[in-house]
Design a protein that fits this description.
18 helices, about 450 residues, binds NADPH dihydro-nicotinamide-adenine-dinucleotide phosphate, alpha/beta, Rossmann fold, five-stranded mixed β-sheet
């Protein structure tokens, strides 16, 4: 048994019910084998055993009162996974599906993603099984205040800096920040994704989606392909999907489909993003409303069918495991030549194998969607310096960071002789820096 196989077998035995965490760990660990072949000293220091174990997990109850005066109780979590290269950093997810397995998978991915940004941030993730959908603003506020009352003991601008994720956007970050400030009596950059009037960074809202397209452009150009003129399908219609669509369209692609958790729209003329923004950002309504404004488009109930739409480039931007083996095969059959992951772990391991086998250009999430956290780190810098950069400055930095991430991933592939395979490239490039820092800091 190799060192990697040994550690993974132990992980499986100790965490039998954490399927998402095991899936993420499997993908990461097995692509790190070339690193361990080169560095036998890592095994002696039990580096991998330490890497897959979170430094700390905080779990707490979140009681709050709904608009009918009924007491509700949710679960709250923060996984402080790894602080080798900086304070813990990673989003908060509010979604009924949230559990420890999902947060541990997201936290593990986040360590490497944050390392790839080249910025000094460690990895963490948190959230709650609270469902913001259908709740009034007052209910969301009371929930956020209760959640932060406990979380505030464990975070800080130099300790752990949460941000948004599924179900946590500008409104939630505002309520969370307000409560932190009230409890701790300090005005610091303890959260990112803040509003522009209280310490937020210009461009943060757009950063993950734009960053995804900057990365995909690098990947295409590196392989002698053009971005413009391609037909794209984007799943989701949240923060990442909307700004991926905006940048893809700006780059000359035609985005023909988007979705939410109920179904998808197909618009052969290209998605009208103003209509989507009005539905999702202003009215918080369902994507099915799109066909009322654009009668030439069609709406189909259920999400999975979105991957049966013919496209050149697929950009999954909704949630984990949304492209399975079957969907991957259909995409390939329909002529897809590139896949860029905006969501975290949207492709199953089997789907990735299908893409690999068919030589599809594949941009894995931890590299391709790192633009969000990179811009969060830029927000932290601006908060510390007490100044704000212009939108143009932020996008210039973001584009430079995405270019560097692609170059570092490609260089890691070269260094370890894996061929141009960005799954290997991203895992290895991200891991090298964390491993080096962990070795330097002793057995901690
Ligand atoms: P949002 O909450 O803004 O949007 C999520 C979108 O995905 C919505 O359209 C939602 O539909 C859909 N969705 C959520 N869960 C499911 C599900 N189980 N099945 C089908 N569709 C679903 O989240 P974000 O856009 O912020 O996040 C999307 C993905 O990107 C996540 O994987 C997140 O971890 C990742 N990500 C986000 C970053 C950020 O900066 N926001 C940074 C890096 C990664 P509905 O409205 O019906 O729920």
């Amino acid at each position: 048994m190799t060192y990697v196989e040994e550690v993974y077998a132990k992980l499986e035995k100790e965490n039998p019910n954490e399927k998402e965490f095991l899936q993420a760990a499997k993908e990461i660990l097995f692509s790190l084998q070339p690193v361990f072949d080169k560095h036998p000293e890592y095994q002696k220091a039990a580096l991998l055993e330490r890497f897959v174990e979170p430094e700390r997990i905080i779990m707490f109850r979140v009681p709050w009162v709904d608009d009918n005066g009924v007491v509700q109780v949710n679960k709250g979590y923060r996984v402080q996974f790894n602080s080798a290269i900086g304070p813990y950093k990673g989003g908060l997810r509010f979604h009924p599906s949230v559990n420890l397995s999902i947060l541990k998978f997201l936290g593990l991915e986040q360590i490497l993603k944050n390392s790839l940004t080249t910025l000094p941030i460690g990895g963490g993730k948190g959230g709650s099984n609270f469902n913001p959908k259908g709740k009034s603003d007052a209910e969301v506020m009371r929930f956020c205040q209760s959640f932060m009352t406990e979380l505030s003991r464990h975070i800080g601008a130099d300790v752990d800096v949460p941000a948004g994720d599924i179900g946590v956007g500008g409104r939630e970050i505002g309520y969370l920040f307000g409560q932190y400030k009230r409890l701790r009596d300090e005005y610091t950059g303890v959260l990112t994704g803040k509003g522009l009037t209280y310490g937020g960074s210009l461009g943060r809202k757009e950063a993950t989606g734009y960053g995804l397209l900057f990365f995909v452009r690098e990947m295409l150009e590196y392989n002698g392909k053009k971005t413009n003129g391609n037909v794209a399908v984007i799943s989701g219609s949240g923060n990442v999907a909307i700004y991926a669509c905006e940048k893809a369209t700006e780059m000359g692609m035609k985005v023909v489909a988007m979705s939410d958790s109920d179904g998808y729209i197909y618009d052969p003329n290209g998605i009208n993003l103003d209509v989507v923004k009005d539905i999702k950002e202003v009215r918080r309504a369902r994507i099915s409303e799109y066909v009322k404004a654009v009668p030439t488009a069609t709406y189909t109930v259920g999400c999975k069918g979105i991957w049966t739409i013919k496209c050149d480039i697929a950009l999954p931007c909704a949630t984990q495991n949304e492209i399975d083996e079957e969907s991957a095969k259909i995409l390939v059959k329909n002529g897809v030549f590139a896949v860029g992951e905006g969501a975290n772990m949207p492709s199953t391991l089997e789907a990735i194998e299908v893409f690999r086998a068919n030589k599809i250009l594949f941009a894995p999430a931890k590299a391709a969607n790192a633009g969000g956290v990179a811009t969060s780190a830029l927000e932290m810098s601006q908060n510390s310096m007490r100044l704000s950069w212009s939108k143009a400055e932020v996008f210039e930095k973001l584009s430079g960071i995405m270019k560097a991430i692609h170059a570092n991933c490609a260089a890691a592939c070269e260094k370890y002789g894996t061929g141009y395979d960005l799954v290997y490239g991203a895992n290895i490039a991200g891991f090298e820096k964390v491993a080096d820092a962990m070795m330097a800091q002793g057995i901690v």
